[in-house]
């Protein structure tokens, strides 16, 4: 999909009615419901965060979607693929303010509300007890990324068409046997996408599934 084609379908993307929760659940691990039940009390007081799914035209005018590989750190999302973004901080007036501020801090791109195409379905992540608000946005230029070396190991992008046509795979991932004890782990099969040479699973894959279905509905 080139930029001219993309611009023509933006109004349709804004207006389309999608069962977003169903789209996300296509890439949800089979044991996600059990994790949410175990974490039910925490969910009531979950931490808030917001992320940006950023679309831009490359030099050939094909549309690309930005992803990041997080650095290795002591936490459940260490060394995982995700969207730029992070937790709410004092001074953030809206969830988009959070997402835009964190995106600038992590990859050096300033975004404004006029760039929003659609707010995606919020997603609760049991292992880290975060409720995440995702935003699908676009810019009309090829960005020069400046990554935060502390938080981000790599910034990369995928061809939007590769997401739209991607197949759902299965990936074996180590998970805590108990949410309250990360020292014991079990290997579990989870649905995933192979994008840009990376296996993408979990919450990021669930959001990508919603984005994929949005585009499938309008093209």
Model description:
The chain is an alpha+beta fold and 219 residues long. It has a single domain (3-218), classed as Nucleoside Triphosphate Pyrophosphohydrolase. The protein has helices at 3-15, 20-25, 32-38, 40-43, 95-107, 160-164, 202-218, and strands at 47-57, 63-70, 81-82, 85-87, 116-119, 123-125, 130-138, 152-159, 169-178, 181-195, 198-201. Strands 1, 2, 3, 4, 5, 6, 7 and 8 form an 8-stranded mixed sheet that branches. A hairpin with a 4-residue loop joins strand 6 and strand 7 (130-138). The longest helix has 17 residues, at 202-218. The mean pLDDT is 90.
Which helices and strands, and how do they pair?
Elements: H1 3-15, H2 20-25, H3 32-38, H4 40-43, E1 47-57, E2 63-70, E3 81-82, E4 85-87, H5 95-107, E5 116-119, E6 123-125, E7 130-138, E8 152-159, H6 160-164, E9 169-178, E10 181-195, E11 198-201, H7 202-218
Parallel strand pairs: 1-7
Antiparallel strand pairs: 1-2, 1-4, 2-3, 2-8, 5-7, 6-7, 9-10, 10-11
Order of helices and strands: HHHHEEEEHEEEEHEEEH
Distance between the termini: 10 Å
Largest sheet: 8 strands, mixed
* Structural domains: how many: 1
CATH fold category name: Nucleoside Triphosphate Pyrophosphohydrolase
Within CATH, the superfamily carries the name: Nucleoside Triphosphate Pyrophosphohydrolase
Shape summary:
globular
Structural class based on helices, strands and sheet pairing: alpha+beta
CATH architecture: Alpha-Beta Complex
Based on DSSP secondary structure assignment, what is the total number of beta strands?
A: 11
Number of helices: 7
List low-confidence stretches.
none
- Radius of gyration of CA atoms, rounded to a whole number: 17 Å
Overall pLDDT metric: 90
The CATH class, by name, is Alpha Beta
* SS strand fraction: 35-45%
What is the helix content? 25-40%
